[in-house]
Amino acid sequence: MRYVIPGEAVFPEGVTEAPDGRGFFVSGSADGTIFRGELGGGDLTVWGPAGSDGRDSALGMTVDPHGRLLVCGGKSGVLFAYDLATGALAARRPVGAEPTLLNDVCVLDGHAYVTDSLRPVVWRFALAPDSVGPAEEYFDLTPHDPGDAYLNGIVPTRDGTGLYAAAQGTGELWRLDPATRAAARVDLGGVPVNGDGMVWVDDVLYVCDNTDEPDGSARYWLTALHLADDGRSGVLAGRWERTVADTPTTVAYVGGRLLLVNSQFGARREGTAKAPFTVSEVGVPLPAS
C-alpha cells in the first residue's frame, strides 16, 4: 500500500509514529512541511505548513514523552518542538554552529539526541515537561577519525543503556554510551551498512541502507541486523532491495507494519523525480534467524 503526499516537490525525508499507535508524521525536506497520515486512512494531509517558525526544511522526527513532536531542521541548525495537541511551537533550539545539518533524532532518559551530518558530533537537549533545554555537543567522534562520517540515523539500544548512530558516509554503525560519552564502532563483520533511518522490531534493527557501488551507481536496501546484547558486534540478517525511484530514507514501525518514506533523492540526482511522492506501507520482512 502507498500513501500519497500532497505537493509537487516534497522530497519527504523523516517519519515517526504518533502516540495513538496508528497515526504517523512525515517531513518534507524541500520546504519544511510536516504531514500527517493514519494507517488505512488514505492520503496524507498537511499538519505543519511550509516555512512555519522559520522551518524551511524538515528531516528526522520523533515524539517525546511530553507530547511534543521534535523536528530536525537540517542546515538551519535548529531543533523544533511542537505541541501535538495544538500544533503550536513549543521550543526552537539552535545549536549555534556552522556548518551544520541536523538530520535525525531519538529520545533516551529525558534527553533528545540529534545527529549532525556535517560534523561528526551528536547534540543533546534536555527534555522537561514544559521546556526543551539548549543544545549541548555531547558526543564527538573526531578523535576516532571517522573521515566523512555523515552521521544520520540514531536509535536507542534495545536495553535502553545507549544509542546506535549510523555513519552513512563510511558504512559504519557506532554505539554511544551516554554515561561515559564514549563511542565505539560496532563490528559488523566487514559488511558496510550506510544507514539512514532505523527502527527496532522486536530484536531486529531495520535500516534504510543506501549504498554507493564502486562503479558509481547506487543501490537502495531495507537491511536487517541482529546485534549482540553488549552492542559490540552484529550480523547481517537480511537485505531487501528498493528502487531508485523510491530511495527510502527513513522507516517507522506503526501498527505492526513498516512505513518507508520514498524520498526520490536518487531519482532527483538522475533528473527523473516526479510527483506524486509517497510512503510505502509494507509487512515486516522475516530476517534469517
Percentage beta strand: over 45%
Question: Tell me, what's the shape?
Answer: globular
| Unreliable residue stretches | none
Provide the CATH top-level class: Mainly Beta
Outline the biggest β-sheet: 5 strands, antiparallel
Please, what is the oligomeric state? single chain
Report the count of strand segments.
25
- How much helical structure, as a percent, in the residues? under 10%
CATH architecture level-2 label:
7 Propeller
Total of helices: 1
Order of helices and strands: EEEEEEEEEEEEEEEEEEEEEEEEHE
At the fourth level of CATH, the homologous superfamily is YVTN repeat-like/Quinoprotein amine dehydrogenase
CATH topology (level 3) name? Methylamine Dehydrogenase, Chain H
Distance between the amino and carboxyl termini: 27 Å
- Tell me the domain tally: 1
Describe the structure.
The relative contact order is 0.14. Strands 10, 11, 12, 13 and 14 form a five-stranded antiparallel β-sheet that branches. The model has no long low-confidence stretch (mean pLDDT 95). This protein has a single domain, classed as YVTN repeat-like/Quinoprotein amine dehydrogenase (Methylamine Dehydrogenase, Chain H, 7 Propeller), CATH 2.130.10.10. The protein contains one helix and 25 strands. The protein is mainly beta.
